Each structure stands twice: as C-alpha cells, then as structure tokens.
C-alpha cells in the first residue's frame, strides 16, 4: 500500500524551505516575513539542502521516512534495554507494520523526527546512561517542533522525582538556551 499523500500543510512548511533556498529568508511570505510553521529545524535543513541543489519535496518525504526508521530503532533499543525477550527480533517488524507510524513516516511532516528524538532522549537518559547526549538532544528538541519546549520542563521533573538531581538546574537552564 502506498501511503505517500502530501497535505497542504506540508507545502506551507516547504514554502519556508523554498524561500530560504531561493531568497535567504526563512518565511512563508517574502513580502511580509511571517512564520507559518512550528517545525523550524527540519525545514530549515531542507532549505539548506535545497539550496545545494537537492529536490525539496523528496527531501521532506525522506525526512519522514528516516524519522520512522529511527523511531523503530530507538523503540527496539528501549525494549531491549528493558530486558524484553527477543525484542530485536519481533519489535522492528511489529513497529514497521504499526499503522500510525507507517502513516506518519510517509507524509513528509517532521512528526517522526520529533518522536524519534524523544525516544532517543528516553534511551540515552534511562537505558544507555549517556546523559550528555540526552541533554544535547533535549536542547535541540524545541527546534524540531515548538511543543518540544514542554519536554524541557517534563524531563527535568522526571529526573527530580527519580532523585537524579546532580547538576539538574544548570543542565536544565543550559538545555533551554537554543529556544531563548
């Protein structure tokens, strides 16, 4: 089943990338600079790659697909890290056929990249114990989608409740720097 079906909102997001690539302005409207996207970083990067000569629409679909693959990878890593038996065998297949993930990985939006980033943060915070990587990804998350700013509050709260308070305030403030 071919699920690739772009929506008009995708083309609004891609207009930002196109205008950046062609005119150097990350804006929906060139005459009056306006924001029409909550997905800054993915479409900014698509604009940079479009400026380098790569096709804009195909990059959006590739971004969604890669985000879906990363969701499958990090879900599998989390399940394996939690000791789920044979997770590396059944989880990728189960996740690859999960309709919401399949649909979201095929329409050109950055939702799968956003979800993959959240899953990677969970993995690096709680399974792999690579806190520096987790904090860095947490700082980037609101640049992928604005609602990622909520996670800047949520993850430190989770760590506080887990009594992982070493350098929590400093790291929380530092992770908020990119959105300020």
Describe this structure in words.
- With 180 residues, the chain is mainly alpha-helical.
- Helices cover 68% and strands 0% of the residues.
- It has helices spanning 8-23, 40-51, 56-81, 87-96, 99-104, 111-127, 131-144, 148-161, 168-175.
- It starts with 7 loop residues before the first helix and ends in a 5-residue tail after the last helix.
- 32% of the residues are buried.
Task: Write the SSE topology.
Elements: H1 8-23, H2 40-51, H3 56-81, H4 87-96, H5 99-104, H6 111-127, H7 131-144, H8 148-161, H9 168-175
Helix pairs in contact: 1-2, 2-3, 3-4, 3-6, 6-7, 7-8, 7-9, 8-9
* Structural class by sheet pairing and helices: mainly alpha
Low-confidence runs: none
* Biggest beta-sheet profile: none
Question: Roughly what percent helix?
Answer: 55-70%
Order of helices and strands: HHHHHHHHH
> Distance N terminus to C terminus?
43 Å
Average pLDDT metric: 86
Overall, the morphology is flat
Count every beta strand, where a strand is a DSSP E run of 2 or more residues: 0
Our estimate of the beta-strand percent is under 5%
Total DSSP helices: 9
Please give the radius of gyration in angstroms.
18 Å
Brief overview, please?
The chain is built from 9 helices and no strands. It is an all-alpha fold.
What labels describe this entry?
single chain; 180 residues; 9 helices; mainly alpha
